[in-house]
């Protein structure tokens, strides 16, 4: 997606915003951690880390007190 294209020519992609940046909302924890490892820019890493911190921990990763 190139920025500045006419809306009529733009294809709708649910994973990309209108400006062409990736949306992190629908990604799961595994996808976010993979994206964090492959990212090189500090600004992108910070954004991905904030998205990871917003996610609640899954039941499999939290210890269960019996």
| Count of discrete alpha- or pi-helical segments spanning 4 or more residues | 2
What series of H and E elements makes up the topology? HH
Which structural category fits the helices and strands? mainly alpha
Distance between the termini: 51 Å
Nearest-integer average pLDDT = 77
Can you count the beta strands? 0
Largest sheet: none
State the low-pLDDT regions, or none: none
Strand residue content: under 5%
Give a concise summary.
The chain has 66 residues and is mainly alpha-helical.
Structure description:
By secondary structure, the chain is mostly helical. It is 35% helix and 0% strand. The chain is built from two helices and no strands. The longest helix is centred in the C-terminal third of the chain and has 13 residues, at 42-54. The radius of gyration is 16 Å and the shape is elongated. The N and C termini lie far apart (51 Å).
Task: Please describe the topology of this protein.
Elements: H1 29-38, H2 42-54
Helix pairs in contact: 1-2
Main attributes of the structure:
66 residues; 2 helices; 0% strand; elongated
């Amino acid at each position: 997606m190139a920025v500045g294209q006419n809306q009529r020519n733009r294809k709708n992609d649910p994973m990309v915003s209108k400006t062409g940046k990736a949306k992190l909302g629908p990604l799961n924890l595994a996808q976010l951690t993979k994206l964090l490892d492959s990212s090189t820019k500090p600004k992108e890493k910070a954004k991905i880390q904030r998205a990871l911190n917003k996610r609640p921990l899954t039941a499999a990763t939290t210890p269960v007190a019996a």
